[in-house]
Design brief:
- By secondary structure, the protein is an alpha+beta fold.
- It has one domain (about 5-160): Thiol Ester Dehydrase, Chain A, CATH 3.10.129.10.
- Helix content is about 25%, strand content about 35%.
- It has helices at about 25-35, 40-45, 45-50, 60-75, 155-160; strands at about 15-25, 80-90, 100-110, 120-130, 135-145.
- It has a five-stranded antiparallel β-sheet, covered by helices on one side.
- It starts with 14 loop residues before the first strand and ends in a 7-residue tail after the last helix.
Length: about 170
Amino acid sequence: MQFGRYFEEFEVGATYKHWPGKTITEYDNQQFCLLTMNHHPLHLDAHYAEGTQQGRIVVVGNYVYALLLGMSVADLSGKAIANLEVESLRHVAPTFSGDTIYGESTVLDKRESSSKKDRGVVRIDTVGYKQDGTVVCVYRRKILVPKHPGHGNEELEQRRRPVPRRD
């Protein structure tokens, strides 16, 4: 099973559907809020949330973003050296307990690193949507990924060679 991609394996325009989806529970939302110290009552207090325009507890948006980011690791950033930047992040529609989130990412462009020959930067759009197709979250990011060690990448190949044992 492949986990992430090398620079050469990314194709501009390719779209990766992240599988499986995740059904969000009330517990997931509460734990994320408590772990991140986001105690806004819209995300934790059912009585308070009844009086808002949504009429019920809304799943905290950063959990949805983190979930989508995690879902994309196996397809995209499993080999990443670093997550460089989140260029944009939009929460488009609310998410509620019981919603199932799915995601897909499209490669926008890629370029070789200007400072190190063994890596490159890949720019990606990710869209998260609910079971009914409603888009809930959209973000754009850049990741730094290594080049494949077998594609003329001498610097990376040398670092991965085993060090001879001294007895």
